[in-house]
Write a structure and sequence with these properties.
By secondary structure, the protein is an alpha/beta fold. It has 14 helices and 14 strands. The chain starts with a strand and ends with a strand.
Length: 362
């Protein structure tokens, strides 16, 4: 059986409204109950922020540091199989320091892969209805954990793209200066596109199976990666050269993974146009469950799952079926809700009450 990654302990200080929180969660199921605005989402955000060094709510570090606090800090112990790792994170509004087992990891994949988790939250409706960058981020979130060097490729590509676009926006444009960035864009851009296409192909059957499990017809769901970028670096470079006149006219680079999208369809049509609110939520959840399955298959470790405000996002039947699926997988589960009745669907869960930035086990 695949070893499951589990948070054994979390200590947070100065993160949003979480002043001094210490949690020892159950290895399997955990329920965090409280009214809106008490810190439930912030708790899950803190867990995911330690694991990914990004906010799933799109917040900046300045927004994450608590009011009147100079610095935020978190310590998280993650166990999986026979291994345990300690993650420490301190940051203020300008700087950040992250370590694993007391050292800065040499490779990003080692850090992210050892703390793999999946988050489902209210903003995930935008995975289906929102802008393409959210769907690209879903793919990148998986790939930085399982493909060595992928995070570095993203950063190198972003730097070259920024520099090339700056030249294209200049009052005068030197074609040779612009073209000097094409080899780097071609090298890293083609690698990013290849990785994303491969991952999308993996996500499709996993998302369909997950949709079936949560009472949504999986055969009606389709996912495809849409790109104008060649997967061969040489052809990619030639495509950039052909697009130069267009790029100059638009003052930006028009081809590349930054311009790609993941097309999600329901019954053969764009899901954002035809799926109901409930279907959209279920499709988004199926994508997150597919993310979890692919992470498990690629890394050989089962991530833990964070479900934010589940009572408002899913109907009771889908919630019950989701919990049953997670229980069968033996993944650690963190659930936040304003509805104490959700406890009936997780009778064996460890229960916590969240109030005014404090978290206490019952």
């Amino acid at each position: 059986m695949t070893p499951a990654l589990r948070v054994a302990r979390l200590v947070v200080r100065g993160f949003r409204n979480l002043d001094a929180v210490s949690v020892e969660p159950d290895p399997r199921a955990n329920l965090f109950v409280g009214a809106n605005g008490q810190g439930k989402t912030s708790l899950l955000e803190a867990v995911d922020f330690v694991a990914t060094l990004r906010s799933f709510r799109g917040a900046t570090r300045s927004q994450l540091v608590g009011h009147g606090v100079a610095q935020a800090a978190a310590r998280m112990v993650v166990e999986g199989g026979d291994l345990a790792h300690e993650f420490r994170l301190t940051f203020d509004r300008k700087t950040r320091d992250a370590t694993m087992d007391g050292k800065r990891p040499e490779r990003a994949v080692h850090y992210y892969g050892a703390a793999a988790c999946v988050v489902f939250h209210p903003q995930d409706l935008d995975l289906v209805r929102g802008s393409p960058d959210l769907r690209r981020r879903l793919l990148d979130r998986v790939l930085v954990r399982v493909v060595d060097g992928y995070g570095e490729a993203l950063r190198s590509y972003a730097r070259a793209l920024k520099a090339r676009n700056a030249l294209l926006r200049g009052a005068t444009v030197d074609p040779r200066a612009v073209a000097a960035y094409d080899p780097m864009l071609a090298r890293f851009g083609s690698a990013i596109v290849r990785a994303r296409i491969g991952l999308t192909d993996e996500l499709l059957p996993a998302a369909r199976a997950a949709a079936d499990d949560i009472a949504l017809s999986g055969s009606e769901v389709s996912i495809a990666y849409r790109t104008k970028s060649p997967t061969d670096a040489g052809e990619y470079r030639e495509a950039l050269a052909r697009a130069y006149d267009t790029d100059r006219a638009r003052t930006l680079t028009t081809i590349g993974p930054h311009a790609d999208d993941v097309v999600i369809k329901w019954s053969g049509r764009l899901a954002r146009d035809v799926a109901s609110q409930g279907q959209t939520r279920a499709i988004a959840l199926a994508l997150r469950l597919a993310e979890l399955e692919v992470l498990e298959r690629r890394s050989g470790r089962l991530p833990w799952l964070l479900l934010d405000d589940v009572s408002s996002e899913l109907d009771r039947e889908r919630t019950a079926r989701l919990f049953a699926r997670i229980a069968a997988m033996e993944a650690q589960l963190w659930v936040t809700t304003t509805d104490p009745a959700v406890s009936a669907l997780l009778p064996d869960a460890k229960r916590f009450v969240v109030h005014a930035g404090t978290v206490n086990a019952q």
